[in-house]
Amino acid sequence: MAFTAIAIYGYVDPRFKKSSFTFWVFTFLIAAMYFPFLFINWGFNTGILVIPMLQIIMFGMGTKLSLSDFKTELAKPKGIIAGSIMVFGIMPLLGVLVVKLFNFPPEIAVGFILIGCCPGGASSNVMVYLAKGNVALSVCVTTITTLITPIVTPLLMKIFANEMVEISFLKMMFSSFNLIIVPIVAGLICNRILYEKAAWLDKDRNILIIALFVTIAVFLIIPAAFPTSLTVLKPGLILGLALAAIVSFTKVIVKFFKGPKNWMDQILPSLSMLSLLLFVTIVVALIEINYWL
């Protein structure tokens, strides 16, 4: 109750405004831990919301980025190289250190070291985004470390755990693309639609054509049969295209009614925070349920 009270109070007291979301997270975390059944079934299995929530957050990041941001980071690769080395250097060593300190049994120790040998994922990008850090650098590091994971992770496991872990390169790569790259690319496209200083993007007719084209693409992809290895990309493509269509239609509607030009900046932070809150709450609730079963 105290966390909830502080979170609500943050809306009226500027001193607590920036901390309000943090207290909401604590409130829902505690609720998910003590009353997990409230969050796992809302007439459907809420577990299916986990990936879409992360994809929406990734999409929100994409709308804050442009291709020039990535060009800037790739032109100075030191940050990407340093980040990649830290991911596959510090994390595995910390995993080994924790295993040694707590003297875990072999089956738990191997799993713990495996976690340390895996790359940063969507959650690291989310933390950088919420901390107003360098999202482009974070995404670049995450993408590169994910792509080299099928080679590096088994090697690290052999060094630190004396075991090899079977990994499907294509499955892991396409899963990462579905979760991170596809929604971010959709966000980049929307960033251009919203903020690009081009004459053709100022014409409502052209934006409507884009929106209609993307909407048709969504309805064509839904029944389409994908190759087995590419099936994992289908949900991300559908969600990404649907969000691009919504943004395009909304831009025309807002312009017609002479609404604020920064409407996306007003909506996305709240949508991203809500998605993060739902994601964390549902995941914690599912973990608690599985723990007690």
TrEMBL record:
<feature type="transmembrane region" description="Helical">
    <location>
        <begin position="177"/>
        <end position="195"/>
    </location>
</feature>
<feature type="transmembrane region" description="Helical">
    <location>
        <begin position="21"/>
        <end position="42"/>
    </location>
</feature>
<feature type="transmembrane region" description="Helical">
    <location>
        <begin position="266"/>
        <end position="287"/>
    </location>
</feature>
<dbReference type="InterPro" id="IPR038770">
    <property type="entry name" value="Na+/solute_symporter_sf"/>
</dbReference>
<dbReference type="GO" id="GO:0016020">
    <property type="term" value="C:membrane"/>
</dbReference>
<feature type="transmembrane region" description="Helical">
    <location>
        <begin position="135"/>
        <end position="157"/>
    </location>
</feature>
<feature type="transmembrane region" description="Helical">
    <location>
        <begin position="48"/>
        <end position="67"/>
    </location>
</feature>
<dbReference type="Pfam" id="PF01758">
    <property type="entry name" value="SBF"/>
</dbReference>
<keyword id="KW-1133">Transmembrane helix</keyword>
<feature type="transmembrane region" description="Helical">
    <location>
        <begin position="207"/>
        <end position="226"/>
    </location>
</feature>
<feature type="transmembrane region" description="Helical">
    <location>
        <begin position="108"/>
        <end position="128"/>
    </location>
</feature>
<dbReference type="InterPro" id="IPR002657">
    <property type="entry name" value="BilAc:Na_symport/Acr3"/>
</dbReference>
<feature type="transmembrane region" description="Helical">
    <location>
        <begin position="79"/>
        <end position="102"/>
    </location>
</feature>
<protein>
    <submittedName>
        <fullName>Bile acid:sodium symporter family protein</fullName>
    </submittedName>
</protein>
<feature type="transmembrane region" description="Helical">
    <location>
        <begin position="232"/>
        <end position="254"/>
    </location>
</feature>
<dbReference type="InterPro" id="IPR004710">
    <property type="entry name" value="Bilac:Na_transpt"/>
</dbReference>
<keyword id="KW-0472">Membrane</keyword>
<keyword id="KW-0812">Transmembrane</keyword>
